[in-house]
Design a protein that fits this description.
Helices cover about 40% and strands about 0% of the residues. It has a two-stranded antiparallel sheet with strand order 1-2. It is globular and about 55 Å long. The chain binds fe (ii) ion (2 copies). One fe (ii) ion binds next to loops. The site of one fe (ii) ion (FE2) has 4 residues, from loops.
């Protein structure tokens, strides 16, 4: 049975013209690039006055309504078996590029370009090669969309489930429609967790971050795994809303998440080298860390 069968058709409406609309909205919320070298001035990202598009708002309404504890556990049980597909990472990038939506005039980059922009900005700043690899693969989990998952189950800010939803999460009012919101246990500060239990014990809302983390966890150093797993956890890495669930090790490792975030958000470089030029370097990098094929 398809995992989404319990949802009514109307609940599966895809409000975003493309997944990039969520990321464009992030730039409006967090317009301030921390120190990151780039050709583009920061002014181009500043836009405080324009309200979020209705599509983005509708996207969060669905995301906050349906990302329950049970939904997350169910998705993990399904997708973390990695029995959907097996392919070389290069085929996965081609697969991902099928997500391009030409009808969105703001989306001038395909998914692969965003990944390369991120990884090249990291490489240019002289960070370790495994972090360059993380830049290249951090959004690979968006292939979930191509397995039929709804947008609100693939992208969007992530947050813990099984405990109270923070009002620091974007559009917190939409959590009132989530059945966990009034649950005796899930609505409490710690919910099913212990104080400072560590994020590894915490279920995060389901999406491309958690998925790619599990896909890569045997291959990449821990700092990189934190970047993959928590790169959309804005309520923590920008707003510090869940310190009470983190342990000292998480706090240490979040330095990597914070280091990574500006590269994800602000590394659009109009003078990007062509893929043909970059290919030999990335082929060698991928071969150094990853097996010939990856299970999805
Ligand atoms: Fe992402
Ligand atoms: Fe990204």
């Amino acid at each position: 049975m398809p995992a989404n069968q319990h949802l009514k058709n109307a609940d599966l409406i895809e409000p975003l013209a493309s997944l990039d609309e969520w990321e464009e909205d992030l730039l409006k919320r967090y317009p301030d690039p921390s120190a990151i070298a780039q050709d583009k001035g920061t002014e181009e990202f500043r836009n405080y006055t324009e309200p979020p598009r209705d599509t983005v708002k509708e996207f969060y309404r669905l995301n906050h309504k349906f990302q329950t504890y049970d939904y997350v556990v169910q998705k993990k049980n399904d997708f973390l078996q990695f029995n959907k597909k097996e392919m070389p990472i290069w085929n996965a990038f081609d697969f991902l590029n099928e997500l391009v939506d030409d009808s969105d005039p703001d989306t001038d980059l395909d998914q692969m370009q965003h990944l390369l922009q991120t990884s090249e900005a990291i490489r240019n700043d002289g960070h370790p090669d495994w972090m360059v690899l993380v830049g290249l693969i951090h959004d690979m989990g968006k292939v979930l969309c191509l397995f039929g998952e709804p947008q609100w189950g693939v992208v969007g800010d992530t947050f813990p489930v099984g405990c109270a939803y923070s009002d620091k999460i974007v559009f917190p009012e939409f959590f009132a429609d989530n059945p966990d919101y009034e649950d005796k246990v899930y609505s409490t500060k710690y919910g099913v967790y212990e104080p400072n239990c560590g994020l590894d014990k915490v279920h995060m809302s389901w999406g491309h971050d958690e998925y790619v983390y599990h896909m890569m966890k045997d291959y990449i150093p821990e700092g990189g795994l934190y970047m993959l797993r928590y790169h959309s956890f804005y309520a923590q890495h920008r707003e510090h809303a869940y310190d009470h669930l983190m342990n000292d090790h998480d706090r240490e490792m979040f330095k990597w998440v914070k280091l990574f975030n500006p590269y994800d958000l602000y590394s659009k470089n109009p003078n990007q080298k062509s893929w043909e030029e970059l290919k030999p370097y990335y082929q060698e990098l991928v071969a150094k860390y990853l097996p010939a094929t990856i299970k999805f």
